[in-house]
Amino acid sequence: MSTTAQNQGETVTPATPAADTAGVIALLERGRTLATPVLRAAVDRLASPMDTVAAYHFGWIDAQGRPAAGDGGKAVRPALALLSAEVAGQAPEVGVPGAVAVELVHNFSLLHDDLMDGDEQRRHRDTVWKVHGPAQAILVGDALFALAGEILLELGTVEAGRATRRLTSATRKLIDGQAQDISYEHRERVTVAECLEMEGNKTGALLACAASIGAVLGGADDRTADTLERYGYHLGLAFQAVDDLLGIWGDPDATGKQTWSDLRQRKKSLPVVAALDAGGEASERLARLLAADAKKTEAEFADFDEEEFAARAALIEQAGGRDWTSQEARRQHATAVAALDQVEMEDRVRAQLVALADFVVVRER
Does the keyword Transferase apply (predicted)? Predict the structure, then answer.
């Protein structure tokens, strides 16, 4: 492994967290319970058929428009926003507008990502562009982004303006990260530092915003909000590292995606980049295969069978990419948790933020 890879997170000791699963599930459910009615009301503002398309995306209806109890996602961001309000000494309800705004931006990005990546499945269902067409996926994504700003600014407070600025900045970084991700797909080499920068933008920025936005709405000062953002940013890097592992080795029944999904999309995710950076026979063989893959047309690449993707996954593992990414998830987790020591809060709230961080690292979907 290169010096760049080795130096990531030197100040923390990797450790395997033990998630309080029952406690975290309760936090996630609280986030859904408080945020979903406001989220539904926001979606109801959209013109037809965008309201219906958005409802399908959120899992509230099926493709025929019938009520459904679909999987609405992990709801980590709403849970963070409500806990963030409690850090500022406020009731969790104070964080609800922030939770909804962040969730709208997150789903705006999912709608566009699915289309750009050609993903046909999300949460065990056909994606919006597959059911309703690319145009609707783009329009509904744009509409959700616009709604996010409305939800916050309608509060009409100084704190709402501060929260909106943070959300807007996080959204720009998220888009930067998506652009970087796409540009890396057809490059032969991407450095570990570049990959971490991309993932910090694409995932870390919005989780950082979620972890601070409730506190901002609750009147917390910038120092507190900035420190909570650091927690959320490093939690986002841990979250994405786990996602990268699941994108190659995840169980399709749990993730709702195809086997080897990130390899099918030629993504330069952390396991791939770390494996290429490692040196050695497996790393060199992987580099030759990926260099050849980059020259293939989409049609040629689509003809690959399961064995070819399995061979690439095996080389990534042999070169150490899987183990390094697992360790990186734990390093980022430890850095996130350490940031909480710099903010005064109730012990109960601190324990819940730590439990949520633990859950992110040990999840299977």
Answer: yes
